[in-house]
Amino acid sequence: MLICWKGDIRSSVLDMAELIRLYEENPNPRQVEKIVEVLRRGGLVIYPTDTVYGLGCDITNSKALQRIARIKGIKLEKANWSFVCADLSNLSDYVRQIDSSTFKILKRTLPGPYTFILPGNNNLPKDFKKKKTVGIRVPDNAIAQALVTGLGNPIVSTSIRDEDDILEYTTDPELIFEKWQNLVDIVINGGYGGNVASTVIDLSEGEPLIVREGKGSLEIF
C-alpha cells in the first residue's frame, strides 16, 4: 500500500486508500498490526483521537514526514506537529528534564484532550533536531494508543481540517475517506469524531501559557 510521489501526483500499488473499521472499546489486534506495519513502511494513516481525526505517520520516517508536509503545503522544518504518545513513559526520549510541578500537570491531565509544548532535548529524530520545543499529545482514545504502542514510538500527527467555513473539522470518517483516499494509505473508521481540537498549553517556560483553547477544560490549571 505504499505510495510514491511524481510531482504532485500520487501513484500507488493500490487504486486508493483502505478504509478500516475499528471499535474503540476493543480494537481488533490483527487490524491494528496491519495498520502499524503500514506506518513502519512509511505509510500515512488517518485515525481517531479523543478530539478530531488526525493525519499521522512514523516519527522516524523522513519520507513519510515529507509526504505530510507536501500535503499540508508547508516545509517540514517549519512544521509544528504533535508527537502522539501512548503514555508518559517515553517523555525523556524527546523532552528535556522538567520540574515536578510541570510533571504533575501532565500526570493530572493526560491521557486527555491537551497538547503540551515542552522543551525538546538532543535526542529528537533527525528531522526535528532544530526544534527547541515539541508538542506532546497523549489522547484518551484506545485506537490511537494501540497504534502508538504497536509501533513502538510516537506518531507525528496533524489535524484533519475541512474547507467548510462553518464546520472546521470533518467528523464523519466515511466523508474523510472520500476526500483523502487518494492522498493517504489507510483511513480508520473509529466512529464519528469531534469537531473541537485539543487545548494547547505551552509549558516550555514553566508557567502554563494558553496557546489555543479547545476541548480540554482550563479550570484544571
UniProtKB/TrEMBL annotation:
Transmembrane segments: none annotated. Residues 29-216 form the YrdC-like domain. InterPro entries: DHBP_synth_RibB-like_a/b_dom, Sua5-like_dom, SUA5_domain. SUPFAM superfamilies: YrdC/RibB. Pfam families: Sua5_yciO_yrdC. It comes from the Bacteria. GO terms for molecular function: double-stranded RNA binding. PANTHER family: DHBP SYNTHASE RIBB-LIKE ALPHA/BETA DOMAIN-CONTAINING PROTEIN, THREONYLCARBAMOYL-AMP SYNTHASE. NCBIfam families: L-threonylcarbamoyladenylate synthase (TIGR00057). This is Translation factor SUA5. It comes from Flagellimonas taeanensis.
